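User: Please predict the structure of the protein below. I'd like the answer in structure-token form so I can feed it into my own downstream comparison script.

Assistant: Understood. Taking the following sequence of 308 residues as input:
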Amino acid sequence: MTTKPNLAETSRSKADIQRLPDWLRRSIGNASDLSTVQRLIKQRQIHTICEEGRCPNRGECYAQGTATFLLMGPTCTRACAFCQVDKGHAPMPLDPDEPQKIAESVQILGLRYVVLTSVARDDLPDQGAGWFAETIAQIRQRNPRTQVEVLTPDFWGGRDADKTSEDLQRQRIAAVVQMQPACYNHNIETVRRLQGPVRRGAQYDRSLRVLQLVKELNSTIPTKSGLMLGHGETAAEVIEAMRDLRSVGCDRLTIGQYLRPSLEHLPVQRYWTPDEFEHMGKTARELGFAHVRSGPLVRSSYHAGEDA
């Protein structure tokens, strides 16, 4: 039996998406900066999280010579309830030329700082860790002065009780760490209590372990994580998450507002104010984070090059 949608609820949901506070409204940036990058990624059939995730800062970042490339296709094998990236069907086969295409794009655009992220690829034997390493190598071959930051998934893809999976996770992370990225980022996204409904297929402690492993493998590589506010978390829970990140040696932190991409995604529970973001940023610095970006429109790669 098919249930007709509740028109009143649908109307309210649409109104919630449209009724953004003034501090969340901003220009997408210079049209020429946007069109140059968009044309290039379309021609080369590569992807950026800037476009796939409809980041509000992409024009600003392009103008500053920074971009975040999305590796291994636009389809994720997981189904996080907040994320704009495509999911729900089989991912595409890897494009063997993708690392080279990205390296060439970095060269053409003259990018000084690049962030490499990816969809989760639980279907691949190494979860895509080797693809990160190969892409870094290709970028450096053509662009030796360009710094490369990584924002990786957890590289898990195994059963919770499987010790072999823990060993494999360490090996996969080690493959990326050996390439000595300028920064290793892995987002916990939200507080411990809300991990289940927000990050399907991920676990809070497992994500903390990713950051801890990076430091165990190479303590000189800065680590970073990010939090999205607006899912119903309390200030005390956010501070607890910050402390958990510091306990595993996390050096850098981004804090931004969750914005609902569509009616199929989790609704926003609350819009945190700029003053509240400023306070959270101040608290993070007091807890010992070396670099903090905290604001309504802050995203994982926002001003990443400046922190380097």
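That's the full token string. Residues 1-13 have pLDDT under 50 and may be disordered.
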